[in-house]
Hints:
Elements: E1 16-20, E2 23-27, H1 38-54, H2 59-72, E3 77-78, E4 82-84, E5 87-93, E6 101-106, E7 127-131, H3 132-135, E8 143-149, E9 155-161, E10 168-174, E11 180-194, E12 200-206, E13 212-219, E14 228-232, E15 239-244, E16 250-256, E17 261-267, E18 276-277, E19 287-292, E20 295-300, E21 308-313, E22 321-324, E23 330-337, E24 341-348, E25 351-358, E26 364-366, E27 375-378, E28 388-394, E29 401-406, E30 412-417, E31 434-442, E32 448-456, E33 467-471, H4 485-491, E34 496-500, H5 510-514, H6 522-537, E35 546-551, H7 553-564, E36 571-575, H8 581-585, H9 593-600, H10 607-616, E37 629-635, H11 644-656, E38 662-667, H12 678-696
Parallel strand pairs: 33-34, 33-35, 35-36, 36-37, 37-38
Antiparallel strand pairs: 1-2, 3-5, 4-5, 5-6, 6-7, 8-9, 9-10, 10-11, 11-12, 12-13, 13-14, 15-16, 16-17, 17-18, 19-20, 20-21, 21-22, 23-24, 24-25, 25-26, 27-28, 28-29, 29-30, 31-32, 32-34
Helix pairs in contact: 2-12, 6-7
GO molecular function: serine-type endopeptidase activity
Pfam family, one: Peptidase_S9
Keywords: Hydrolase, Protease, Serine protease
Amino acid sequence: MTTETPAAPVAKRVPTERVHHGDTAVDEYAWLADKDAPETIAHLTAENSYTEARTAHLADLRATLFEETRRRTQETDLSVPARKGGYWYYSRSVEGQQYGIQCRRPVRDGETEPPVSVDGAPLDGEEVLLDGNQLAEGHDFFSLGAYDVSPDGRWLAYSTDFAGDERYTLRVKDLQTGEVLADEVPDTFYGTAWSADAAVLFYVTVDESWRPYRVWRHTVGTPASEDVVVHEEPDERFWVGVELTRSERFILIDIHSKITSEVRVIPAGNPTGEPAIIAPRRQGVEYSVEHHGHRFLILHNDGAEDFALAYTSADAPGDWVPMIEHAPGTRLESVDAFADHLVISLRTNGLTGLRVITDGSTDWYDIDFPEPLYSVGLDANPDYRTGRIRFRYSSLVSPDSVYDFDLVTREMILRKRKPVLPGPDGREYDPAEYEQHRDWALADDGTRIPISLVCRAGTPRDGSAPCLVYGYGSYEASIDPWFSIPRLSLLDRGVVFAVAHVRGGGELGRRWYEEGKLLAKKNTFTDFVACARHLVKAGWTAPDRLVARGASAGGLLMGAVANLAPDAFVGIVAQVPFVDALTSILDPSLPLTVTEWEEWGNPLADPEVYAYMKSYTPYENVAPVDYPAILAVTSLNDTRVLYHEPAKWIARLRAVAPQGDYLLKTEMGAGHGGPSGRYDAWKEEAFVNAWILDRLGRR
C-alpha cells in the first residue's frame, strides 16, 4: 500500500509593484508580510502540514538522531563555578528539564579552588537565584536576557522573553529575601549595569524599529515611570549598549554603527553624573574601551586596519598613547584588563588566540595550543584582582573544555571537559577515531579560501563520501571550529563535515571582511561555490553527495549559491534565511534596516547599490532551472530576519521552477534562534539532520 504524495501549497499571486531608480519590479507574494492576516497564518500552517507529510518517512530516523544526542549528553550537569566577591557562581542542568538553573554558593574559609560536585549534583549550601524551568512554566518559549548580580551581591537584575521577539521584561530580585520587586520594565534590550553602591541600575530600550537607542537610569525600589533617560541616540545607524567595567569603577555607554564608534563613561560611584565622551565619533573609526587602573585602554582601527591598542587617562581622557602597534594580518579583537595583567583576544592565520601582557611591561606571550584547528576564547572572569584567567577551548574533535590559566607560572589547569557519553551502541567517544583537516580552495580571482573539515578516520578521498558544507560570510563573524554532539551522528554515518571560511567573515582579518561586503558582496557567494567545487575536485565528495547549510545571513548565502550553481549541490538547508534582502533593505521602517546600510549599502539612495543587490538577492533571481532540494526553516516571531522572506522565496520557487522539491517549516512560537528549550532544540536539529541524511542517502 502506498501513500499518495500530498500536493504542495500554492500561494496566491497578488502582483504588487515596486519602483526605484527607474526600475519596476513585481512582487506577487508581498501579502505574506502581513503577520496578523488569517490568510498568512493559514498559508504557513498549510506549509507546515505539507512539510510534515513529506518528511513523515523520516520520523524513525529523527527519533533515532534525537536519542543519539540525548544518550551522548550528560543531562544533569554543573558548570565550573566562577568566583566573584564572596560567592561561587555557576549554572546547573537537570535531566528531563529544558532550561538551566542559575545558582551561587558562598566561598568558604581558605577555599581557593572552584568546588566540584559528583555527576552534576547541586553543591552543598547552594542558593538558587533563577530557575529557568519555573520561569518558563505555561509558556511555549522562554529566553533569559539580562542576568546581572549587583556588586554587593544583594540584587539580581534579570529579563525574560516569552515570545522569541527579543523584547524583554526587566525585573529586580532581592537575593537576601527571594522577593521579586515591583520594579518592572517592559520592552528592554540586552545589557544592564549597576552603580557601585547597587542602588541604581542602567538598562537599554529599543525604538519602533527594534533599534536599541536609549540608556535609562533606574533607582531600585522606585516605579519605572520615574526612570531617567541618560542617553538617547538620534542617528538611526547607531545602536547603544551599557555595561559595568570589570574593575566596577565605570559604567560604559557604547554607541556604535557597523563602522563607527563612540564610548561615554559615568563613574560607577556617581551614577547621576553626566556621561563623558572618551573620543567623539569619527566616520569609519571604531574603538572599544576597557578600564585599567589610571587609564582607559583603547582598542581601535584609526590607521590600523587590523586594530591597535592604545590608552588614555582615566581622569581626563584625551590623546591616545600607543601600546601595541598595528600588525597587518593579526586582528586584535578585544582586550580584557585585570589588576596586574592584560589579555588580548586575537586571530591570525585563520585561528583564534590569547596574548598576555604583564602590567608595566611591554613584553607579551601567546598561549600555545596543540591542535592544528581549534577555537579559544575567554570565559567568565568576573574578578578584577586575580592571577588566573579562565578560557574555553574546543576543536572539531575536542569537546568544549574549560581551563584556568596561571598568568605568572603559565600553568594550564583543565577544570572541565564536556562529557560525551556512550551512544545507544555503547561506544565511548574517542577523538582518535576522527580526523580534522585544513584545506584551501582557489576563488575565481585567485584568492585562497580556507576550509575546515572533520570526518571519521579513514574516510575515502575518492569522491564516494557524502558531505555537508556550512557557510556564513557576513558582519566579520567568524565560523571557528567547534565541537558538536549532534554532528557525531552525521560523522558516524560517513558524512564529511566542512566549513567554508568565505570572505565577508572575519577569519583572516578585517580585509577578509571588507572584501565580502557592500559592492564586493558577491565574493561571499562565489567563494562558497569555489569551496564546493574544490571539495569535489579534491575527492572529498561529489555534487550528488553534497548538501549546503547556512543560517540568517548564511541563509542569504544559501539562496545565492542555489541560483549561481544549482548543479553543485543535491540539497540546501537555509535556516532563518535573509533571502529577500533587497526588499527589506529598501524599507527603513523594518527592524534593523537603517543600521544595515553600512553592511549592504543603501539601495534607496544609490542606484548602483540597488542594481547590485537586485543582481544577487535570491528572491529576485529565482529562475526556471533545476534547483537542488531546498529546506527552509524560519520562526514567526523572528525580529532579525522576518518569517515572510523564506515564505515568499519558497512560493516563488514553486511558481517559477515547479519541478523542484521545496519545503518550508515555520516555528509558530519562536524567534531567530529557533526553539528555546534544549530538548526542543535537539528535536529541531534532528529534523534538519534527518532531512540532510535522506538527501545524502545515509540513514
